[in-house]
Write a structure and sequence with these properties.
Shape: globular
Number of helices: 3
Number of strands: 10
Order of helices and strands: HEEEEEHEEEEEH
Largest sheet: 5 strands, antiparallel
Structural class: alpha+beta
Length: about 160
């Protein structure tokens, strides 16, 4: 029965050749897939080691005039809580973003922002002076002329900036 592979009644290539070719194609593509994933797994740590030379300034997206625009974190002078929103005050522009001030504080701490009040964060490099009012309250004066009140809870952190 299996002696003559070209006999139509036998189990040979003539009757089932197409079926054998289809399954061999799946099998060989499976081998190619396995070998390519092993190669990619070996090359992946090499690609992870390459770091960009210049890191871009982080940006946040704010709403202004019914449009979303990117605002560089380096351009922001201070952030003000306004209910469920935060207003970003920048030298030339600003805008609203839907976020909490505490979550922005966690994100922007490494960018040089400090909490000065329960409703305000400011960029450390924008602080021009720290002044005590006649009533005893501390005020941070920014380069743009804005005066931000300093909460009692955050007064120690702000005065530590002036002594450092």
């Amino acid at each position: 029965m299996y002696d003559d592979l070209t006999d139509p009644g036998s189990f040979g290539f003539a009757d089932h050749g197409g079926w054998i070719l289809v399954w061999s194609g799946y099998f060989l593509s499976g081998i190619a897939l396995i070998s390519s994933t092993k190669k990619a797994a070996v090359e992946a740590p090499k690609a992870a080691e390459v770091k960009p030379e210049v890191e871009a300034s982080p940006t946040i997206w704010v709403q202004r005039n019914k449009r979303s625009i990117p605002l560089s974190v380096d351009d922001i002078d201070w952030l003000e809580a306004q209910g469920n929103y935060v207003y970003a005050h920048a030298a030339e522009s600003g805008g609203l973003l839907r976020s909490s001030l505490s979550s922005l504080e966690d994100r922007l701490k490494s960018s040089g922002f400090i909490r000065v009040h329960r409703s305000a964060l400011c960029h450390k490099q924008r602080i021009q002076a720290v002044k005590r009012k006649s009533c005893g309250a501390l005020v941070v004066i920014l380069h743009g002329g804005a005066e931000l009140p300093v909460g009692r809870r955050y007064a120690a952190d702000v005065t530590a900036l002036t002594s450092a």
